[in-house]
Write a structure and sequence with these properties.
The chain is mostly helical. The chain has 2 helices and no strands. It starts with 7 loop residues before the first helix and ends with a helix.
Length: 56
């Protein structure tokens, strides 16, 4: 959804704003989206490590 454009910082900002909503369903959606953005950040950090250490 928000992260499809590739700008995770903007997506994170918007999701953090949505997280402040009074609507529980919006809070749940935003929390899930933030976890997805965090996961993408983690994958990006791990990719060079994995590439530098191929299976033997």
């Amino acid at each position: 959804m928000l992260i499809q454009g590739g700008d995770r910082a903007s997506a994170r900002f918007l999701l953090q704003q949505i997280l402040q909503s009074e609507e529980a369903w919006l809070q749940r959606m935003a929390a899930r989206g933030l976890k997805q953005v965090d996961a993408l950040d983690a994958v990006e950090l791990l990719q060079p490590i994995v590439a530098a250490n191929p299976p033997k």
